[in-house]
Known about the structure:
Elements lengths: L4 H8 L2 H10 L9 H15 L7 H8 L7 H26 L1 H15 L2 H17 L5 H20 L8 H30 L8 H10 L6 H13 L5 H14 L5 H20 L5
Amino acid sequence: MQKSRLYELFCALDAKDLKALKKWVRSPFFNQREHVVKLFDFLAVNVSQRRPAPDRGAAFRALWPALPFDDHKLRLSMSLLNKCIERYLVWVQVNEEEAKAKLKVCQAYRKLGLNRHFQKSIKDVDQLLADQNVRDAEYFQDRHAYFLEQYHFTAQLNRMEGIPLEDVQRNLDIAYMAAKLKQSCAMLSHQAIYKKEYSFGLLPEVLAQIEENNYLEHPAISVYYYAYQALRPDAEETYFHAFKDALVTQQTHFKPAEVRNLFLLAANYCIQQINRGRMQ
C-alpha cells in the first residue's frame, strides 16, 4: 500500500488530525460502513507506530479475515475512506478562518429566509473583518463577499435603495488589483531566472488605474506595485527604495508566509542587481 494515495495521505496527517478523524469516520453522518472504520483504525495504528507500509493482503485480512483476498473490494474501501478524509480536510479549511465560515452561515440563513439570524451574523462578519490587522488581497476578497452577501439579502427583500453596489465593486477592484500585482511579481521573478517571456494580460490597465486613482493607500496594492516596478529590467532604483520602505512599514498587514515571500522578492531584486554588475 506504500504507493497508494490513501497511504501517502495518512503519512501526511498529524496526531491531531488522526484523533479527530477517528471520531469523524465513526459518525453515521459521514460514514455508515464498518469496513471503512476498520481500515482507518488499521492504517492509523500502522502510521502512528511508524511501522513499515502494510501490504494489501494484510489490509484486507484486517477488514475481512474470513474472506479470500479481493482486490476490487479493498480498492472500494480505500476509495471510500479517502473520500471521507477529504471531506474532513474541507471542513478544516472552511473553519480555519472564522469570517469565511461565518459568511457561509449568513448565506444559509438568507436562503432559509431567516432575516433576524442573517442580520446578526452579518454584523459578526463585519466585526471579525474589522478586528483583524491583515489587509492583504484575501481580506478584500472577504470584504467583497461580505458586501455581496448584503446585496443579495437586500435585493431579496426588494429594498433596492439600500443595495451596497458601490462597496461590492470597490472591494472587488482592490482585491483583483492586489492579486494581479502579486501574480505579476511572481511572473517577473520567474521570467528573470528562466529567461521566459510572459504575457501580463490586463496589467497595463491595472497599473494605469492605480496611478490615476488613490489605490496606493492600500498596503495590499502599494507593496506589490513598488515591487513590480523595482523588478522590471529597466527599473529605476527609487522603486526598490519605495518597495523596501513600504515592506518595512506595512508588513504587519500581511500574514507571516506572505511577508517571507515579499522579502524573497527583495532578495531576488538584489541578486539581479549583482548579476548586472551593480554591487552598491
